[in-house]
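re the bet — no i am not wrong, look at it urself. input seq straight from the record:
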Amino acid sequence: MTGLVDGQDQLALPDELFELTEGYREILALLDGPAAMRRIVATVPTVCGADTAWVGEPEGPDEIVLRHPLNLRTDMVDGLVVPVGCGLGGQVLVERTPKWVRDYQHAQSITHHFKSVVEAEGMTSMIAVPMVYEDRLLGVLYGSNRYAASYDDRATQLFVQAAARAAAAVVVAERARHAAEIAVHEERRRVALDLHDTVGAMLFTIGAGIRRLAEELPPGDALQGRLSDLEQQTAEAAAALRTSLHALNVPPDNIAGCVALRGDCRAFQERTGIIARLITVTDVPPLPPAHVRALVGTAREALLNVEKHARAQSVVVSVFAGAGGVTVRIADDGVGLPTAGNSSEGLGMQAMSERLARVGGRLNVGRNEDGGVTVQAWVPA
């Protein structure tokens, strides 16, 4: 009993548990985009020394919408639309670099579309920093003070770090949402297969039994009509089931390619024992079926090449949007590019390139930092 009361290790345990709990909450918050953004904005006053903070979230390619305001006096900022080039945030959208003004009301370097809002809030100085992740502009983080303040290199860097956290939170939330959508579809597909094998088979058996019973009755029997109605109803039920199963089995357009790629990675790993992971880097826009088939077909050919030639330990298949389209990248840690004269490898690469070219896409192949091969397929969105 004395050890439990007097031991310092025992007294430290609640603090450790508290830190673990807080870390767990932080991870869970990152899976919810709005919640993660609110948490990050809430740290800006303490970490960066600003009186107020908010973010601008992209609304199409040419504007942002201001969200998650903190410590503001009115509701004028929340939901405000900022077009590209307008105000401080609009300039950040164009130049993608941090911008600040010591006195917003009298600054000559910005437009004054939002002067009335700034006056109502009593803002004086303001800073806006792009939220960038791997060259993707995911929004703008704002901070403001109600006095004239200059944001030196150190102050600006604090906002840059906060903006980087915000951008990472957006990406984590995107990936979590996309993974959840794929998981939901896979569960729906499993249910569809189970229904096909059970209810579908039962309806087939019932229909076949009714037909056999009808054939055994003498011609003109009064039960013939009733059995015919039952057979028709059974056929209609089977048709309705097939329609529902098809709807359950077909993935939404925005995840169709990722669903197929995930299945290919799983099959590749089970077949070869080589670790294969699918990483969805960004939200993927819906693509025409031909474009999805081109990307998936290229990935399958690339995985087949890894199986035949690479002697790899692992493969990473990543999917992301950018440059006006969608890219699938297959990277292995194998022995590198094959030697010249390998005709089968050359034909495989040629087939991949031609498949992509038919939909306006392109193929790039090269050695990566792990010494293996990276195959990158791009199609327009």
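see?? The two ends are 68 Å apart (CA to CA). told u. also The chain has ten helices and eleven strands. so pay up
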